[in-house]
Amino acid sequence: MSDLDLVVVGATGFTGRQAAAYLAAHAPPELRWALVGRNEARLLAVRDGLGPAQAGRECLVVDTQDEAAVEALVARTRVVLTTVGPYAQYGEPLLAACARQGRHYVDITGETPWVARMIERHHATALESGARIVPFCGFDSVPSDLGAWMLAEHQRQRGGAALAEVLALFRARGGFNGGTLASALGMMERGDGRTVARPDLLNAPGPIGTYPRDQRGAVYVAEASTWSAPFFMEAVNTRVVRRTASLLAGGPEDPGPAFRYREAMRTGPGLSGNLLAQTLTLSLGAFAVLMSGAWGRGLVRRLAPAPGEGPDEQTMDRGFFRVDLLARTVDGGSLRGRIEGQGDPGNRCTVRMLCEAALCLCLDEAALPPRAGILTPATALAGPYLARLRAAGMRFEVSG
């Protein structure tokens, strides 16, 4: 029997500290949760920084590469929240232990090749044990995955036509933290560049459809009167949405074989919008070239924040994101949605999404879809998670 509801693994890192603070402010008093890290002094410092109400919060010293220690930790809890990345380097022992023991798991990885390997190795085990393994519970890829699901569910609830296509147009302002960049650098060093490009990388077994190619240049979107540029997270988010569609295939929430999902960065109308789209396209291309060589990655490492570091408080407070969802239905109709979050998308908003996903698994389990395995935010958490994010101040709406 577990004596804890939730553990925050990596609580002394940049994102882990924010997650601990969020839970201290928003978790119900009866929730049994603990801080986990490798260094006791740093754990105690994080706990002390949460205020006197958290003075008795348990701190557990665990090395996530020590399999015996990880197994013992997982045995004590119902849900594992982990911010310890890069996940391809540090994540598998925790995920595998949760899959074996039937414990639920959330993370904020954007490392699709690693998740593809975890699906191959541990999905069947988690399916058998009843574990809900839910990666991608941050800015990549909750707005994309839950947004597309929200539109499809809206149509299903009102008996409308199935979706044929969703285009998500992003606007965002924020900063990078060192852990995110370390994950991207690690993927390139492992030679995962071509794997990332596979359009069906995360799909469940079944027929493979034809997918639109990731956007490569400036494109005018007439329905929104705006130019658009390639979105640097498209290769992650689209694969997650496609996994959701493939997991739902054949069931009552099946979006149908015609469903397609795309993403881009909104740059605005007119000449200025076109120039910005062209500039962003060239910048992303230059960054890809830089990351493809060892010398370029070394330069990025020297200039970028180190793991455990990130933007200052003012930058995180002033950040935001907005997603406009433009959908077509199979009968020629149209539908729109909007998602908004206040705060740095990769930090403030990501922490909110991650912690609310963990709280959803802790507190709303009876209302969740009866699924297990390596899932997606939409297939694992669905409506209860959407309700939590709305209550936490994020905007999710449908019109048309």
Commentary on this structure:
- It is a single chain.
- The protein has helices at residues 14-26, 40-49, 67-75, 87-90, 92-101, 112-129, 142-157, 178-189, 193-196, 234-248, 270-292, 294-303, 313-318, 345-363, 377-391; strands at residues 4-9, 33-37, 59-61, 77-82, 104-106, 132-134, 163-173, 219-221, 226-229, 260-268, 320-329, 334-342, 373-374, 395-399.
- The mean pLDDT is 93.
- 46% of the residues lie in helices and 20% in strands.
- Helix 6 (112-129) links the parallel strand 5 (104-106) and strand 6 (132-134).
- The strands form 2 sheets. The protein has a 7-stranded parallel beta sheet, with helices on both faces. Strands 8-9-10-7-11-12-14 form a 7-stranded mixed beta sheet.
- By secondary structure, the chain is an alpha/beta fold.
- Helix 7 (142-157) crosses helix 15 (377-391).
- The chain contains 15 helices and 14 strands.
- It starts with a strand and ends with a strand.
Topology:
Elements: E1 4-9, H1 14-26, E2 33-37, H2 40-49, E3 59-61, H3 67-75, E4 77-82, H4 87-90, H5 92-101, E5 104-106, H6 112-129, E6 132-134, H7 142-157, E7 163-173, H8 178-189, H9 193-196, E8 219-221, E9 226-229, H10 234-248, E10 260-268, H11 270-292, H12 294-303, H13 313-318, E11 320-329, E12 334-342, H14 345-363, E13 373-374, H15 377-391, E14 395-399
Parallel strand pairs: 1-2, 1-4, 2-3, 4-5, 5-6, 6-13, 7-10
Antiparallel strand pairs: 7-11, 8-9, 9-10, 11-12, 12-14
